[in-house]
Amino acid sequence: MSYRPILTARIGKVDPTSLDDYVAHGGFQALKRALALGPDAIIDIVTQANVLGRGGAAFPAGIKWKAVSTEPGPKYVVANADESEPGTFKDRIIMEGDPFSLVEGVIIASYAVGAHQAYIYIRGEYPLAITRVQNAVDACYQAGMLGERILDRRYPLDIEVRRGAGAYICGEETALFESIEGKRGFPRIKPPFPTQVGLFGRPTLINNVETLINALPLVQHGPDWFRTMGPLDSPGPKLYCLSGRIRRPGLVEAPMGTTLYDLIYNYGGGVTGSGELGGVLLGGAAGTFVTADDLDVFMDFGSLREIDAALGSGVVIVFDTSVDMKAVLRRIARFFAHESCGKCYPCQLGTQRQLEIIERLAADRLRPGDLQLLSEVGQTMTDASICGLGQTAHSAIRTALKRFDFDPSTGHFARFGPPSGVQEALA
Amino acid sequence: MKDATHTLTPQQLAAVETVLARYQGKGRSALLPCLHEVQAITGWLDPEICAAIGQSLRVPLVQIHEVIEFYTLFYNRPVGRRIIRVCDDVPCYLAGSEAIIRACATRLRVDEGGGTTEDGAWTLEIHPCLGRCEQAPFLMIDDEGYGHVTPEQIADLLGGKP
Ligand SMILES: Cc1cc2nc3c(=O)[nH]c(=O)nc-3n(C[C@H](O)[C@H](O)[C@H](O)COP(=O)(O)O)c2cc1C
Ligand code: SF4
Ligand code: FES
Question: Is this prediction's ipTM beyond 0.90?
Fold first, then answer.
């Protein structure tokens, strides 16, 4: 717990509306350093540091930066600030509290890969973040630090802030491109990958907000420093989003690979409700449930994968033993049925079937064969959907049924309190 | 509230025209920003407005309707003058969102699944995670967010009158 925040250090101290105050708090030092290093050296640093994408998919950032840098222009950089995964609020807190750092990250990435146009796509339900980031971009233009030059270097770069319009699927990178192009957010079939054919059909670097702001301390302190935090296969600082039945919900910055126990009991102050931990949902609706038996797990991409769990975007939703788990699963199933874009059948139909069965489960009206059917539907979605939404739509439900010992004959989850209905009556 | 087109005030019409002049010939990529700006003035996007947007941007009308239908923040039907979005996703549920929704629905006399009041003053929407789970239960009224809300606060937030 002696860790000193890096990514969130300025939040609460800096005036998020003032360029001068940002500079007074060390702002644009990283960009200055980046310009001195040059594009190739920046990409080497990002590659050596092994920064894994913080948007959920954990793809190595260096590989993408390198790939886009070797493509011919015009090319684009896109900051993915669509943040709609249930339980996730980290990017919002960055954008509201330290919006210039995102702008600086976007400038560094654009310079490194050779892009002259960048977009920051922010979810429509984040009006304050949109205002703050737009204001930061405007301030940089006014100071002559964007447009014809970046900082004091001649390098044309334009940044445009785009507002989403309420669609979870638009966080998926290719759906996001479609949305910027003025279309419905239907994911594209990959390959080709965005690094070759992205926005407007051109090579595009797309990264999550948190991934981009990691570039700031990284160019200043180098890859060796970065790798002193967390495991070597997924190093660096990490933002975790604590919510649910926990004493101190909120954003926690800690080294990658902090244990789940530390997050819940040391940073989060422990479990509320019954006080006894029933389970934890990691990674949001697209994530996985784990139990109190898993508290010692290291919260990094690799360690979680080993136990059939996922870090995703860093979501930690805590459930005490009194929670009605069926009402929770119903919300997760409803979420996917609602957010499926309908482009491919396994997901379009599968999310509907899944919701119907979970509705029956929640009403204690499971039919014989329902759980078998649910598992088959889930398997089909996971294997045959064309994008990550369908591929993960069954993951939380599958792990809940597996880890919380659901007994179809009684309709109980062994790890949780009274079954649905009864609990409402007791409350 | 059932009309297919609005009766816009002269000020609203002038404001829409100013926006559309700025978007003249900008093409499809400017569609979402343009829809946002126009809807901020008009509340919802009726067929006449869509046609005007299409002419200004030079985007076929069918593409505009597709987009409006796809995104939940765009409306092709009348909605209340103010929109209250109550989050009912997992962290907010754990903090009591059901009681918040019940209080809103009772107060506004609309369905617990959401709806618009008869006088057209309010629309209630049940929303997936609004990205403020650390302040659960959370709701938004237009662009303003309210965290840690209680059922007792709802009457005040909805303007005090039933
Ligand atoms: C349904 C779906 C929603 C997604 N939503 C987001 C999101 O809101 N923010 C984000 O950064 N990545 C999101 N992603 C992941 C992106 O597709 C992509 O992997 C990411 O922007 C890459 O950036 P990173 O490598 O920096 O993580 C989503 C993926 C899927 C399948
Ligand atoms: S998996 Fe679902 S969200 Fe993804 S393209 Fe298919 S239908 Fe759309
Ligand atoms: S669950 Fe309600 S804001 Fe995230």
Answer: yes
Nearest ligand, CA A207: 1
Residue nearest to atom 4 of ligand 2 (CA): A387
Tens-level pLDDT at each residue, chain A (427 residues): 579 999 999 999 999 999 999 999 999 999 999 999 999 999 999 999 999 999 999 999 999 999 999 999 999 999 999 999 999 999 999 999 999 999 999 999 999 999 999 999 999 999 999 999 999 999 999 999 999 999 999 999 999 999 999 999 999 999 999 999 999 999 999 999 999 999 999 999 999 999 999 999 999 999 999 999 999 999 999 999 999 999 999 999 999 999 999 999 999 999 999 999 999 999 999 999 999 999 999 999 999 999 999 999 999 999 999 999 999 999 999 999 999 999 999 999 999 999 999 999 999 999 999 999 999 999 999 999 999 999 999 999 999 999 999 998 888 999 987 654 444 444 4
CATH of the domain at A70: 3.40.50.11540
Tell me whether residues B94 and A319 touch, CB distance under 8 A: yes
Residue where one domain finishes, among candidates A266, A294, A320: A320
Of A267, A293, A320, which residue sits at a domain end? A320
CATH number of B82-157: 3.40.30.10
Judged by its nearest atom, the ligand closest to the C-alpha of residue A195 is 1
Instruction: Say if residues A45 and A37 touch (Cβ distance below 8 Å).
Output: yes
Chain A CB within 8 Å of residue B27 CB: yes
Place of tokens 């396994």: A346
Please check whether residue A116 is in contact with residue A154, taking contact to mean a CB–CB distance below 8 angstroms: no
Q: A86 and B91 in contact by Cβ < 8 A?
A: yes
Pocket test for ligand 1, best of A68, A80, A82 (most atoms within 8 A of CB): A80
Which 8-state DSSP code applies to residue B80?
-
How many domains does chain A fold into?
3
- Assess contact for A85 and A214: CB atoms under 8 A: no
Judge: B133–A87 Cβ closer than 8 Å, yes or no. yes
The pTM (predicted TM-score) of the whole model is 0.97
* Closest CB from B28, B70, B132 relative to A89: B132
Q: DSSP letters of A212-251?
A: HHHHHHHHHHHHHHHTTSS-TTS-SEEEEEEEESBSS-EE
